[in-house]
Amino acid sequence: MTTSVAITTIRADNPGPMTLDGTNSYLIAADASGPSVLVDPGPDDDEHLRALAQRDLALVLITHRHADHTAGSARLHEWTSVPVRAVDPDHCHGAAPLTSGMLDVAETAGVRLEVVASPGHTDDSVSLLVPDFEHDFGQNFGQGIGQGIGQDFEQDFEQDTAPTTGAMLTGDTILGRGTTVIAHPDGNLADYFGTLDRLESYGNVAVLPAHGDRRSDLAAVCRQYREHRKQRLAQVAAVCDQLGDLSSLDDPRARTAVIDTVVDAVYTDIADGVRAAAAKSVAAQLDYLAEHGCLSARD
């Protein structure tokens, strides 16, 4: 018999164009007075790390290697001796790397967790399913309105409004508002589409992102994200078609020029702080289009 677990958010004070309101560190516990599993320690920030270190931690898990999720890991491990696990061995401390499947943490933390491979944003990204988290879509969830890289949009999708069970901690794979960057060359768009398919299969569980507020109905959000990516691909392909001969894409300087042209044409309203992220996503989109025969050299 399982009982509903509690998931507490401690948000780091590192707001910015890429981190939104800051990095969400999550504490997962079966009992408010018992041990917790911590997901994403966040930046190497004294105040944030001390707030985490004061908790009764059984295990630390990392969703992916980026510094806004991992920079505090080594110091937290030094202070607490709590093992830190990630897919990337370079970000593990006192424990083995993560692999897909159920985590054996019921004995130490009293909760069930499933590691779900989620490559795309980065090649080491994972999501974490908490199957025993109970939630009601009408309470404590964000409005689903935000800004993607260069586009405002509203998530207006059908969703089940009945209370349900389960939460997916998505790291940067799905954000609390807007869309994520495909961090080329580490990130890969084909992998990302596969991840959206995989996550959609978990149905209408809650979404707990590493940045922004909680969201309802993972499956519906995955469908919206997929449609947004397809629209972006069509826009990028249209610009490339206008450019004509793309045989020079193997040359780094020429490739950079093409990427800059696409960013200017497609991401027309982005802030300066996210232009580099947009360029990474465009690079990933160009690779995807080339791999699928959608870009051709012309005389």
UniProtKB/TrEMBL annotation:
Keywords annotated in UniProt: Hydrolase
Natural source organism: Nakamurella aerolata
Coiled-coil spans in chain: none
UniProt xrefs under InterPro entries: Metallo-B-lactamas, RibonucZ/Hydroxyglut_hydro, Sec-metab_biosynth-thioest, WH-like_DNA-bd_sf
Upper classification of the organism: Bacteria, Bacillati, Actinomycetota, Actinomycetes, Nakamurellales
GO molecular function ontology, one term from the record: hydrolase activity
Record's protein name: MBL fold metallo-hydrolase
Top-level taxon of the source organism: Bacteria
Keyword Hydrolase: yes
Span of domain Metallo-beta-lactamase: 22-184
Record keyword Hydrolase present: yes
